[in-house]
Design goal:
Number of helices: 21
Structural class: alpha/beta
Strand content: 15-25%
Helix content: 25-40%
Number of strands: 24
Largest sheet: 8 strands, parallel
Distance between the termini: 41 Å
Length: 600
């Protein structure tokens, strides 16, 4: 199949060369017999940011079927047009390759959006009191006993928590009065903490005598020992597992919502981590029914996760899965494919559950969330998971935020690749804190990192309550990664945040908190590198750099049109840039309300 695709592309390029030669000789018209081979779509008079090896800028691009067949000057490309070719004058607007979000919980993003779930993110609420009003309103709209679900709250933005940082957190008492007859489950923006009311605790049968699960914590009142309604890490399933699953129709609609909203943002490829067998089935069904209708507009790469119900993973979980399912990296097609497998190493810094070498403010170093009774057992289990998946030819992405957790992952990756070397491109997910010595190992063994600089603006003002300034100033050390030669990709981790890649790029360049404070200036990176991390680097992580990620002849025509020049605009205004048009596989799948006037 790969050979036939290659030969097909070669033939097209040969014919295209013939057209260009004829055009340069002032050939008046394309022969009628070859009309069907002329481009379907041509974009001219643009600022085409190719993101090729030289980061060259071109004026025009021609598309035939799914592929880019020519990139160059407007006068040359325009002469390739046939009678059926659509020609769009960009009027100087900027074109980028489609954005590749390398770590986003795609279906969960759809489920987090109204009307399925309450949006309690910083975009909708500013205080615990605001959330109380929202859940009270929902309680009046539904029947007694029905669950109220929501996600996105962030203590770093809630007024009450900001007034008493590091001490005040949401509790069940904050929403009990408003919801006496309805259980409530509100997931933190990170997905690592859950806040519930007393009704939910009652249904879960969680009391002061309930033991903390391994790798999790039931937060308790320091005076009474009673649960506060705040659950961390592996304690979350005690509540979240009780919520009835959405119907198949609701889950389908959630995928549709995710497709529409991300397409409008210019995201053309995603990697969805933590995909269970059930979610894999949902994706397959959605693809079969919606692709022909033109409602599948984003390329989806899946990281399979077979740990049970979100609990700590073990090698046995993955062995059991592979006993019946023999998938490996690359299974599928360019629209839906297996990218690899994912597991968790630790928690997250804001909740002090990421595994660190040095103590947090107030004590503790966090820990691993892998199965095992001791840290050594957990460490060894993590290594065994990585080794097993590597032998099965599965690319491995491991959630690791703390420097000690990242170091453990690197140990596992190196050991696995020394035993079974192949072009795996394993990577760390998040990598908030990383030792320089581990960066060097990552570069040597082609171990990447998927970072989320969009989240930076959501938590950085809060991080002063977690670790000392000299540590959090270098959180997400992009400059150090670049110097060490580590491949970095950018992602959103939606629904933790709304997947606005432009804000992520802005943070890469500025490293400013919402309050305007600059931290870790040596970790800033230039705009070209930030764009690479959102496009071609993501394609490389997906083992697909030969077919997407840049605007080059022979690659898939995944393009986005912006209303401003992202290369020259004031970095503080990058997040304000509008996406005018999104093109996937040569088809225009989104146009904004402003695009008609802007491209007229």
């Amino acid at each position: 199949m790969r050979l036939s695709i290659f030969l097909n592309r070669v033939c097209k390029l040969v014919l295209l060369g013939f057209f260009l030669l004829e055009a340069s000789a002032s050939y008046a018209a394309v022969p009628k017999a070859l009309e069907e081979l002329t481009p379907d779509l041509i974009l001219i008079n643009g600022n085409i940011v190719t993101v090729d090896r030289e980061f060259s800028i071109r004026q025009a691009v021609a598309v035939k079927n799914e592929l880019i067949i020519a990139v160059g000057k407007s006068r040359d490309i325009k002469q390739l047009a046939g009678g059926k070719t659509r020609v769009i004058d960009l009027k100087g607007k900027t074109v980028l390759p489609g954005i590749n979000d390398t770590h986003t919980h795609f279906q969960s993003f759809g489920l987090s959006r109204p009307p399925v779930s309450l949006d309690v993110s910083s975009a909708s609420v500013k205080s615990i009191a605001d959330i109380a009003v929202m859940v009270e309103k929902r309680a009046k709209e539904i029947k007694p006993g029905e669950w109220i679900s929501g996600s996105g709250w962030n203590e770093g933005y809630l007024k009450e928590c900001m007034e008493n940082p590091g001490v005040r957190y949401p509790t069940r008492q904050d929403i009990d009065r408003q919801t006496p007859d309805n259980p409530v489950c509100l997931v933190n923006f990170s997905g690592h903490n859950t806040w519930c009311n007393s009704k939910a605790l009652e249904l879960a049968k969680v009391t002061k005598n309930t033991a903390d699960p391994t790798g999790g914590e039931i937060v308790r009142d320091l005076k009474t020992g009673e649960p506060t309604g705040f659950f961390k890490e592996n304690a979350q399933p005690l509540i979240r597992s009780l919520i009835p699953e959405q119907s198949r129709e609701q889950q389908f609609e959630a995928l549709g919502v995710a497709m529409r909203e991300m397409t409008a943002m210019g995201v053309t490829s995603v990697t969805d981590p933590s995909v269970s067998p059930e979610l894999w089935s949902l994706y397959n069904d959605f693809y079969r029914t919606k692709f022909k209708e033109g409602k599948w507009t984003v390329r989806v790469n899946l990281l399979l996760n077979w740990s049970a119900n979100g609990t700590a993973a073990s090698k046995a979980d993955f062995e059991k899965a592979f006993a019946s399912v023999g998938l490996s990296t690359g299974f599928g097609n360019n629209w839906l494919r297996v990218a690899g497998a994912k597991t968790f190493a630790d928690g997250i810094p804001p909740s002090k559950t990421a595994w660190m070498f040095d103590k947090y403010i107030g004590g503790g170093t966090g820990g691993l969330v892998v199965k095992g009774d001791t840290q050594l057992q957990q460490y060894n289990e993590l290594i065994e998971i990585i080794r097993f998946l590597n032998k099965k030819r599965m690319q491995v992405g491991v959630h690791a935020c703390g420097d000690r957790a990242v170091s453990a992952c690197v140990d596992g990756f190196v050991k696995a690749l020394q035993e079974e070397p192949w072009d795996a491109r394993h990577y760390v997910i998040h990598g908030d804190f990383v030792k320089t010595s581990d960066m060097r190992k990552m570069a040597k063994y082609n171990i990447g990192v998927s970072t989320q600089n969009q989240i930076m603006s959501a938590i950085i003002d809060f991080m002063g309550n977690v670790v000392e300034i000299e540590r959090y100033s270098n959180q997400w050390p992009l400059g150090d990664f670049s110097e060490a030669g580590v491949l970095v990709t950018q992602s959103s981790d939606a629904p933790i945040v709304v997947p606005d890649w432009k804000l992520g790029i802005e943070n890469c360049l500025l490293r400013e908190s919402p309050s305007g404070k600059v931290f870790g200036p040596r970790q800033k990176i230039p705009i070209k590198e930030a764009i690479r991390q959102c496009t071609i680097n993501g394609a490389y992580q997906n083992h697909q750099e030969d077919i997407k990620g840049s605007i080059e002849t022979g690659k898939l025509a995944d393009l986005i049109v912006l209303d401003e020049d992202i290369l020259t605009i004031d970095p503080h205004k990058i997040s304000e840039i509008s996406v005018l048009m999104t093109i996937v596989s040569g088809k225009i799948v989104f146009t904004s309300d402003r695009s008609a006037a802007a491209l007229k």
